[in-house]
Amino acid sequence: MTRLAAWIMASPLNAVLATLLLGFSGIFGWAAAVPAALVGLRKGALHGALPLAAAFGIAVFHWSQGELTLLGTVFATWGGALALGATRTLLVSLLVTVGITAIFVAVLQTVASSQLAALFEQYQQVIGSLNLSGAGEFASMTQAFFAQLMGIWVATSAMVSVFIARSLQARLFNPGGFRQEFHGMRLTPLLGALCVTPLLLIQMWPASEPVAGLFLLPVLMAGVALVHGIVGRKKLGAPPLVIMYLGLALIAPVVTPVLLIAALADSFFDFRNRIER
C-alpha cells in the first residue's frame, strides 16, 4: 500500500491512471475518488483537480449506464477530503461527507426522480425474478427506503474512501499517524447535537427520513473508533474487534444502537481517558 501511495503521488498522470483503474474495476469502483483525495490532502485542491476530473468523468459515464451512486460518492469523498485538510478533524470531515450525501439523495428524489424511479423499477424486477424465501420483504420496499439505502451506500463508501486516503497519506509522511487519529476520534457534545438534531425533522416531516437518518453514520463511526481506541490502549488484541464487526454484520439492529449510545455518552465522559486512570 505504501508503494501504491508513493506511485500515485509521484505524478498527476499516475493519479489519473489509478483513478481510471479503480473506476472501471467493478468491485472497487466506489473508491475512484481515493487518488484525488490523497493528492488533495497532501498537496491541496489544485493538485487534486486532474484525478478529480477523471473521477467525475467516470461517475458521469456510470450515471449514463444507470449506476447513480458513484457520482454522489465522488462528490462526498472530495468534500470530506477538503474538510479534513482544512480542519484536521476526522469527525468534521465525516459530517461534511454525510451532509453532501444528504444533498445528493435530495437531488435524486427531486431533480433526478425519473432516473431513481427507473433504477428502482429495475431493482424490483430483479428481486421479483429471484426464488428466495425472503424476497417478498425486499419486493415490498418503498422507493423512499430504496433512496435511503442508496444514501447509506454513498455515505459509507465516501467515508471509507476518506479513511483510505488519510491512511495512505500517513503511511508516506506520518507512519502510525492514522491509527492514532482514528483511535482518538471522539464526538464533542456540539458535533453530537449536530448529528442527532436532523432526526427531529422526521417527526415534523416524515419525507425527510431518507436524508435525516444519514447523520447517524458519523456517530456510528465514532462508536467504532471508541471500541478500537479502548482495545488498542488496553492491548486486548483482535478478538473484541472481530466480535464487534461480526455483530454489525449479523445482528446490526442490536449492536448499532449500543455503539450509537456509547459514542454519544463518550462525548461527555471521555471513556478512553477514564480507562487509563
Give an overview of the whole structure.
By secondary structure, this protein is mainly α. The chain folds into 2 domains: 1-183, Arp2/3 complex 21 kDa subunit ARPC3 (Orthogonal Bundle); 187-277, no CATH class. Helix content is 79%, strand content 0%. The protein is built from 17 helices and no strands. The chain has helices at residues 2-10, 12-23, 34-43, 49-64, 69-87, 90-109, 113-129, 135-139, 143-173, 177-183, 189-196, 199-204, 209-212, 217-234, 239-250, 252-269, 271-276. It is globular and about 55 Å long. It starts with a helix and ends with a helix. The mean pLDDT is 91.
SSE inventory with pairings:
Layout: H1 2-10, H2 12-23, H3 34-43, H4 49-64, H5 69-87, H6 90-109, H7 113-129, H8 135-139, H9 143-173, H10 177-183, H11 189-196, H12 199-204, H13 209-212, H14 217-234, H15 239-250, H16 252-269, H17 271-276
Helix pairs in contact: 1-2, 2-3, 2-4, 3-4, 3-5, 3-9, 4-5, 5-6, 5-9, 6-9, 14-16, 15-16
